[in-house]
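Structure ticket #2291
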Amino acid sequence: MNPGRHSVPNGWSEGLLDSLTERGSGHTPNRKNASYWNGGVKWVSLVDSDKLDRPKITMTEFEISDEGIRNSSAVRHPAGTVIMSRDAGVGKSSVLGAEMAVSQHFIAWKCSDALENRFLYYWLQFHKGFFERMAVGSTIKTIGLPLFRKLLITSPDSKIEQEKIADILETWDRGIECLTDLIAAKSEQKRSLMQQLLAGKKRLPGFTEEWQEVRLEEVATNSSLRNKGTVPDDRLYAVTKTEGLIPMREHVKGETTDRCRVVKRDWFAYNPMRLNIGSLARLHEKEPVMVSPDYVVFRCKKDRLNPDFLDHLRHTRRWQHYVNVAGNGSVRVRIYFKDLGTFKFHLPSIEEQRRIAEILNTCDREIALHRRQLAAIREQKRGLMQKLLTGEVRVKV
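Resolution: structure written out below.
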C-alpha cells in the first residue's frame, strides 16, 4: 500500500518499508507496579504528543527502570529510531534523540543502511493525512498492524540524496522552530506587560492620577436593541472562543430574525451559557450584525471605558477567575449582564486607557504578523516536501 501514488523517478525505488527497516512497537508497563517507573530510560507516551511532528524528541515526562524493561515486553529503541502514533494523534511522528522506550500507541522503525532515518521521518510527516484516513474506530481511532506490514515507500537509491533532502527540510524546520519560539516569547512578554499595565502596577510616563475602582455596570451598558428588519439576514452572527464574531453557517429558513439582538461596532456580545469558557467577542466591522435573541450584548460608556482597554482586560487572570465563579445554574452556568456587571476592577482616565490599549494592540499586531509569516513558511515547506519527496525536484548528489 502506497499512501501517494506517484511515478517512480530514475534512481528511485518503491518497496516495502519493512524491507528497509526493523519495525517494532511499544509497551505500557502497569502503572501500579512501582518497580517499572522512576528509572533512567525515557518512555514516550501520549502525554508527549505536543513534542511530536518535530525532527527530534528528547524530553519525556516519564522514565521506566531497567527492571521494568527486563520484566515486560518493553524494548529499548536506540537514538535515531523513527516513531509514529497509530491512534490518539494518529500520524504524528518524530525521531528519538536518545535511547528510549515507547508506549503501545506507537510504531517504531529502526532504519537499515539503505534508508536515512530523517528521510523516513519527513516521508511520514508528508503523508500524515493518509494515516489519519486509515485510522478506524468509534471512540478512539487507530491503525491496525496489517497496514504497516504492506506499507510501501518510494525513496532515492542513493543514501546521499536522501540525506540532502532531509538536510534541506531540516533547515526549514529550524526556521519554523525559531519563529515558533519567537511567537511564544512575544506572547509571554505581552501577557506579562498586560498584567502589569491593566492592574496599574506599571504606569506610563505623564500619568499620575489615581485609578478608581469601578464595577463593569457603571462604565458599560446592557443593550436590548432588537433587529426588527434593520439588519440583513446574511448578517446573522455567532460567537466562538477562537474566532470571535463570525457569520452563522446555517440559518433555519423562515425563522424570523426580528427579535435578534443588534451588535454595532465596538460593542460586545456573548452567549450567557458559554461565557465561562471564554466565548465573548467585540465587533470590529463597521456595519452592524445581529446575534441570537438569547445572547447578551453590551457597550462601553463613552468617555468612561475604552473598548480596546476592555478587550485586553477580559484576557487577564482576574477576569477569567471572575467569570468562572459568576452566574447561576448547576449544569450549564448562565452569566447574564447583571452577573457580569458586578465585576470590579481599577480604571484609569480614558486617555491612559487609550494609551495602554495602543501599546497592547501593537504587541498583538506584531504577534499576528509573526503568525502569518509562520503559516506562510509552513505552507511553503509543504510545497517543497511535495516536490522533494516525490522526486519531482532532484537534488545534486
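Closing remark: The mean pLDDT is 89.
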